[in-house]
Amino acid sequence: MARLAFQARSPINAGLSATKLWAPSLGIWGFGAGTAALFVLSVTPLVKREFLVKVPVLGGYFEDKTPASDKPF
Fold it and tell me: pTM of the full predicted structure?
């Protein structure tokens, strides 16, 4: 019959191994959640004005080119 032999591990090593295991998955999920949030919130003026206009390549697409006379407020 096989005997179980437990090896002592410090809490720091256990935490580091868990971090190494979960970091790629959490990074991918975080990137996806951030992209989805920007996609959903891209229609709000605050997100357009404060964030999306300042993106170097895509900023021109999100600029408001409506003349001031056509804006109701």
Answer: 0.64
The pair of structure tokens assigned to 65 is 């080119």
Distance CA 40, CA 18 (A): 32
Contact 71, 61 (CB under 8 A): no
Cβ(59)–Cβ(53) below 8 Å: yes
Q: Per-residue pLDDT averaged across 48-67, rounded?
A: 89
> CA angle, corner 51, sides to 48 and 55, nearest 5?
105
Residue 3 in 3-state DSSP? coil
Instruction: Return the structure tokens found at 38.
Output: 């920007």
